[in-house]
Amino acid sequence: xxxxxxxxxxxxxxxxVKSTVPVLAEHGEAITKRFYELxxxxxxxxxxxxNQTNQRLGKQPKALANTVFAAANYIDQLDAIYPVxxxxxxxxxxxxxxxxxxxxxxxxxxxxxxxxxxxAATDEVIxxxxxxxxxxxxxxxxxxxxMYQEVxxxxxxxxxxxxxxxxxxxxxxxxxTSFYLKPVDGDVLPAFSAGQYITVKVTVPGYxxxxxxxxxxxxxxxxxxxxxSVKKEGGTDxxxxxxxxxxxxxxxxxxxxxxxxxxxGDFILNKEEEKPLVLISGGVGLTPLVSMLETTIxxxxxxxxxxxxxxxxxxxxxxxxxxxxxxxxxQVHVFTxxxxxxxxxxANNNFDKEGLIDLAWLQSILPSNDGDYYLCGPGGFMKHxxxxxxxxxxxxxxxxxxxxxxxxxxx
Length: 411
What we know:
Layout: H1 2-8, H2 11-19, H3 21-42, H4 52-57, H5 59-73, H6 82-95, H7 102-117, H8 123-153, E1 162-171, E2 176-183, E3 197-202, E4 211-216, E5 226-231, H9 243-251, E6 257-260, E7 277-282, H10 286-299, E8 305-311, H11 320-327, E9 332-338, H12 343-348, E10 353-354, H13 359-365, E11 372-376, H14 379-391, E12 399-402
Parallel strand pairs: 7-8, 7-11, 8-9, 9-10, 11-12
Antiparallel strand pairs: 1-2, 1-6, 2-5, 3-4
């Protein structure tokens, strides 16, 4: 992709775009916040694609600002941000983003730059960014075109949304419920990699637009069904109820149909690695790691697995019976950490540590720091675990993570 970039971007355009990096670092979030306001005002149909909760929380504008900032910084060597492009490309393919939507984004990004930067957004700067955006957009479009093609050509694969029936609904804890899905047309399921997610489309009464949400598959590949395990979000004084998760928990039952996209995502298990597999999750972040654990049991029966899970208490922890079963296997070692265990938890002695996961505890339950680490959970949780592992001299190349929602970074 680098060669094409060099042919299109001249030195002057590159210089102008790179000169805007300090301005973007200072005003990036304001620009992207204004961008979303303008775009949804002029194209309300795009609310069908973007997660409106992440918009309200400011997560999406921040993530886009970081992407724009990186693209400007590396405009003359876009290969350097290819991993980011690929990660976002997976999300876009899963959301069914189309090439014709990119010009709309570009138009409103430039309008937002003018609005926020004022006189600093000279005609020269806007012109250069127009050219640069076209090149960046083309990189995304080409990457996503390959992804669409790959998923369409896979056995049982499909493009866009396909109807799946809920064949089983299982309450895993007070806040997490699993949904088992099978294709309505009875076709075989395409293979997926442990750790990937699907996008679910729901039409919630009272809303003018559909809602799309991405949920990790919480089951090993190779079966005749998909399973997602959904946490019912919010519903407290501090956090409003999650629109989609509440609807799924309360209104979707066995026999109902949900349109979904084919599995996507680059947070996937490396099955070639033989070092101990260390899975560290917080709350509902265990879902992709359950898929990785079940896959490793099937495909690498001699590989040591350490499954370390943090939850508030036993009431909200999912897959407790499964964990007990896994723990009986010679290759699997399960450890749980409860932040606020209940009296029942204490009476049953069904957890290994009270409080928070810390480095001293990790060092006491793991044979060494030599492992392949996968982290998933709330942002603050993963940053803390990453810090612990870094202190223990675990190389960053051995630490993999997944944010549920826009990427925040572990630093």
